[in-house]
Amino acid sequence: MINVKLQLTGKVVVPDPMFAITKYTVLFDRVFLKTWMGSIIGIDPGQVNMGMAVMGPNGADLYQIGLTSETDPAQRMMNVVTVVDRLFPGDGAVAGACIEYAAHNKFHGQVPLAEARSAAGMALMTKGIVPLYPPPASIRKEVFGKGTIKAEEVWTNLADKKHNDFLAALSCALYFYEKGL
Q1: Cα-flanking dihedrals φ and ψ of residue 147, to 5°?
Q2: Single pTM value for the model
Q3: DSSP for 87-152, written as a single string
Q4: pLDDT (tens digit per residue) in 163-175
Q5: Which among 10, 28, 53, 132 could disulfide-bond with 169, CB atoms 3.0 to 4.6 Å apart, if both were Cys?
């Protein structure tokens, strides 16, 4: 279990012609020393909403991303690749990445989520980053101590009433910190 408190130091809407992006900048109440190897990327994929985290030793940039609803699977995948490339162009060292895998007990919407997951993975792999793909319960168990606890239940000071994909993405990055390094 990783016990870390988050302090919000900034929240801005990122101007983007295609996507609705809100960037949260947070500081940690401790230092994650192993990140000296580079940033850690966490992604909570989604069809319409997704989260992305770029974690460093003292804090992270967290992104809540609203994607346009598309019926064409190729366009949905291109949207994910585009937004990952925009938010993480590949500058600087990267220690690794974690993309949330499918929930084994959920059936509705898993095909479009698999497309988003694959597209995010391909966007990172083109930069030489091969992500881990653990299921949500494994991430939550490692990060929060129990597989049923959600990120917004722990970091209530940042939780949003509508979308908390950005917090789930941070839990993915923290999972990589523990399991991938």
Answers
A1: -70, -10
A2: 0.94
A3: H----S-EEEEEE----TT--TTHHHHHHHHHHHHHHHHTTT---B---HHHHHHHHHSSTT--HH
A4: 999 999 999 999 9
A5: 53
